[in-house]
Design goal:
alpha/beta, six-stranded mixed sheet, four-stranded antiparallel sheet, about 35% helix, globular
Length: about 210
């Protein structure tokens, strides 16, 4: 499903993430690691947001050779999302939905799942961290992605939204969507049927399961 080969990302600080070969079959996969270990670096590279050396393939589609087609198949929710403060969630949804080809029915369903209707028309500048996370998660499920990347998805959102997110992940998996997830919250990750668990440390990635 996903192949990362000869990957190298360097930072001016001296930190670098190096992956010789990283392959994932279809399913739900966990990436663990301490803060600053390189999880977000890898996620942003796969999502097409970071430059890197090497190759990333999704179902034989090469990110560097077909960046637009690749990005349409990969959705990403950041651990600490940031959006233009003058926009509201309605506007963000319209923008992402057009790019991802999301249907009106899908949008309305996701609004209900994440409980965002009360603040959709207010500017992002007024959002709490929980509101921002709900917005990010909703946007990550728009369209028809083959891979959804969720970085610390269970933080800052309320219990009902956490439960709904678990149900949504399981349903999307049942219809062929793959997931790459990081989380420190064992209460929830123990309820997600992961197909593999990997750990990033010292700029390298290691398989645990």
């Amino acid at each position: 499903m996903l192949v990362v080969q000869n990957f190298l990302k360097k930072y001016p600080t001296g930190f670098q993430l190096e992956i010789d070969s990283f392959k994932l079959k279809k399913g739900i996969h966990m990436i663990q690691g301490e803060n600053g270990a390189g999880k977000s670096t890898l996620f942003k590279a796969i999502a097409g947001l970071h430059t890197f050396e090497g190759k990333i393939l999704l179902e034989h589609l090469d990110l560097k050779k077909a960046p637009l087609k690749f990005r349409k198949k990969v959705n990403y929710a950041e651990a600490e999302p940031v959006y233009p403060e003058f926009l509201n969630l309605n506007e963000l949804i319209l923008f992402v939905a057009k790019a991802k080809g999301a249907s009106r029915d899908q949008i309305e369903h996701l609004k209900s799942v994440f409980g965002v209707t009360d603040f959709m028309a207010t500017p992002v500048a007024t959002y709490s961290s929980g509101m921002l996370k709900k917005a990010s998660l909703l946007l990550a499920f728009l369209g028809n992605p083959k891979l959804i990347i969720l970085d610390e998805p269970f933080t800052t959102i309320d219990r009902a939204s956490q439960e709904n997110l678990i149900d949504l992940i399981k349903f999307q998996m049942s219809v062929g969507v793959n997931f790459l997830i990081s989380s420190h919250q064992t209460e929830f990750i123990n309820r997600v049927p992961f197909d593999s668990v990997h750990t990033i440390s010292n700029g390298r990635i290691h398989e645990q399961l």
